[in-house]
Request: fold
Amino acid sequence: MRIFKYLLPILFLSLACSLTTPPANKADVVSVQMPAPTQIATITIRLTPIPTTCIVTATVLHLRECAGLDCKIKDWLEQGEKLSVQQNVNGWYQVTTPTGESGWVNSNYCGGL
Reply:
């Protein structure tokens, strides 16, 4: 039972990481081995850096107050605008616009450089 205390969070993190872009090279891959009662479990965690900037690829992209479709829209961004990326949370980038306004955009519509 004690193994599940450590294994479940690592499995969850591994699943979350598997939904992101694969690493650029093997230096970005971390392997963790944990002893189990009868065997050794190996879990691979991929570290993927977030881009520092992105370009709006949608014709119009909503800049939102928080990371989610239910969040209030602060502004509309136009295709081709270059945004500064602060963090990535569940497929949403926290960004700053060229005018200094900050908010959240869906990462599917803002490509990295």
